[in-house]
Chemotaxis protein CheR
Amino acid sequence: MIEHIERLLKSRIGLDAESVGRSVIERAVRQRMAAIGLHELESYWTTLGGSPREQQALVEAVVVPETWFFRYPESFNALASLALERQAQLHGARPLRLISLPCSSGEEPYSIAMALLDAGFAPGQFQIDALDVSDKVLEQARKGLYGRNSFRGDALEFRDRFFREQAGSFLLDERVRDCVRLRTGNLLDGNLFAGETPYDFIFCRNLLIYFDRPTQVRVLELLKRQLQAEGTLFIGPAEASLASQNGLQALGRQQTFAFRLAPSIPAKPATMRAAASRTRPSVTPVARPPLPSRARPAPQKVQSQAPRPQAQSEDTWTEVASLANAGRSAQARQLSEQHLQTHGPSAAAYYWLGLLSDVDGHSAQACGYYRKAIYLEPQHREALTHLAAHLEAQGDPAGAQRLYRRAQTPGVGDDD
């Protein structure tokens, strides 16, 4: 009977049961059976089949939102600069159009609004749509009231500017909430964007990983059609390879996982290609940004036998990030493994191998690498956060919360 319910969820929201684990679905079913007073699975299946309302309630029980303000802060830094560039291109002809989906309880679309306001945009210069399949989380977003779990990391200055503390929670300023249009929407609905103008920026992060491959491609094609020709799509780190294989090109901004439609280049006759090669201007290399402190490799031992190869020099992790951001996960993995073999275990190497395992859809392997990174560096925030997300998806919210607390609190070292 659970198999029938899994198929229903797949047809309704595209959920691949293996991506979250059968235990998560079984737990959600038990919660809903208890909520409506049923004890037999067969009776619940009968009720479920005839009640769109109960189907929606089950979806909301299965889809456990895990989000916080300014998650992946590099993406919002990139958005601010890209939005200013896009605004200059449009010469004020229209407001910028942005969308966040799924928007969950609102942290992402409201982060987008705050990032643009901080960049100097007036509210009338942009429009943000925010969609989710869950009416419950949308109602949460409309209230704009958030607990401390929605604020993570050390850079919380925005909370003082845009929130007001209220009985232990934080109420978002109305001027931010008014920038976002919240509505129910399902990406598997073919009429979702009927009559909608394409967007300049689309945020669709960590959703595709819950679909099977055909559904991933189908949804990605829908997003591409809804993206302006010069628009930008922000996705999750585990989805970069999929994007690069399906007509999208990485912007090359480290840790942003931002993509644009790949240019369509017509084939040229051989003589034209030869002429072009003779007249092509020289390209000035773009300086790489400094490494984040978390990604800096440990000091290397001096080896007298031979000079270090370029792949294992000080910019190893910048190169790995660049390869991963471009969807070249196999090369990024190879470079990380080479670093391990030459220089021995390091938290940075294991973290990147975990992230790359996520990209390839190997969640058990990813968890193993994240645990190794945490063993070597107990307060490795990124590894803690990624492992916590896996535990939550596997139906262990208590374990996930312990890791989230560790990521937020320096010096806390609970066993994981």
About this structure: Residues 73-90 form the longest helix (18 residues). The chain is about 50% helix and 10% strand. The CA atoms of residues 388 and 400 lie 4 Å apart.
